[in-house]
Amino acid sequence: QVQLVESGGGSVQAGGSLRLSCAASGYTYTRYSRSCMAWFRQAPGKEREGVASINRYGRTTYAEFVKGRFTISRDNAVQTLSLQMNSLKPEDTAMYYCAADLVNYCEGSGEGLRYWGQGTQVTVSS
C-alpha cells in the first residue's frame, strides 16, 4: 500500500529556512514517476491551501504567496519529494502535508487526491 511520510518541520525565526521531505513507499518506479505530487498546508481555523506541485512532466506550480521563496523538487530514483522554504514568514506557520495521485495536474486545494501523508508542523516566530 502506498504511504507518504513527511519530515523536516520544526520551529524557525522569521527569515530562516527549512527543507521538508516526503518519503514514499509502496510504489513501483513507474507509478511513482507518473504521479503528480504536491505540498499543501493548513493553519488552525483556516482552510487547506495548495503550496506547490510538480507533475510527471516536471511542470511546477506555486501559490502566489510562496513564489520566489519556495522550491519544489522530486527525485524519482529514491521516491522523495522535497520543498525548500526560504525567507520564511510568521504567516507560513501551518501543518504541511504532501499528497500524490496518478493525475496530470494536482494544483489547487488538493481535493480528490488519493494519497496523503500525516503532516509535519512548521512554526515561524517573529
Describe what you observe in this structure.
- The protein is mainly β and 126 residues long.
- It contains one helix and eleven strands; from the N terminus they run βββαββββββββ.
- A hairpin with a 5-residue loop joins strand 5 (49-54) and strand 6 (60-62).
- The mean pLDDT is 97.
Rg over CA atoms: 14 Å
Strand content: over 45%
N- and C-termini, Cα separation: 41 Å
- Based on Cα principal axes, name the global outline: globular
What is the β-strand count? 11
Provide the structure class. Answer: mainly beta
Instruction: Give the mean pLDDT.
Output: 97
Instruction: Report the sheet with the most strands, covering strand number, pairing sense and barrel closure.
Output: 7 strands, mixed
Order of helices and strands: EEEHEEEEEEEE
Share of helix among residues? Answer: under 10%
Q: How many DSSP H or I helices?
A: 1
Could you name the ranges where pLDDT drops below 50 across 5 or more consecutive residues?
none
Question: How would you summarize what this structure contains?
Answer:
The protein is mainly beta and 126 residues long. 4% of the residues lie in helices and 48% in strands.
Main attributes?
1 helix; single chain; mainly beta; 48% strand; 126 residues
List the helices and strands and how they pair.
Elements: E1 3-7, E2 10-13, E3 18-25, H1 29-33, E4 36-42, E5 49-54, E6 60-62, E7 70-75, E8 80-85, E9 94-101, E10 115-116, E11 120-125
Parallel strand pairs: 2-11
Antiparallel strand pairs: 1-3, 3-8, 4-5, 4-9, 5-6, 7-8, 9-10, 9-11
